Amino acid sequence: MRKILMPLALLPLLAVTGPLLAHDHVKDGEKTECEHKKHYKKSGYHQKMLDDLNLTDAQQTQIKDLKNTYWQDNRDAMKAGWQSRKEMQQLSYAESVDQAKLDRLIAESSAAYADKMAEKAALNSAVFNVLTTEQQQQLQQKMAEYQARPDSK
Known about the structure:
This protein is mostly helical.
């Protein structure tokens, strides 16, 4: 009898607390901040660093074109990287490990990583060259401040 009465006693409690638990407890003032955090773009770190530099419209379009070109050029490289990861996973969970294939995949991955770093450095250099000397100094100062923060390491 006790097994039947206990759940029946909890039903009114669940009926009252159910809607309260389902309600969104975020206040209207905080929703805009939460919504802002959800919608970020690829390579947003560039934009955060460049926000306070008062870029002209021409500079903004040049930087946007550079980023778009970078992402278009690297789309195939990213697909190849995912394919390489998939092969590595299949190889690592196989019954026997083919050491030659594993070495080849590691060498390809290392070479692709080095190429990616070089392309990223070229993009950063191109974006930096779009800026005026005053903006370049401001950007370097912001990067130095960022590096000096204790949580950036």
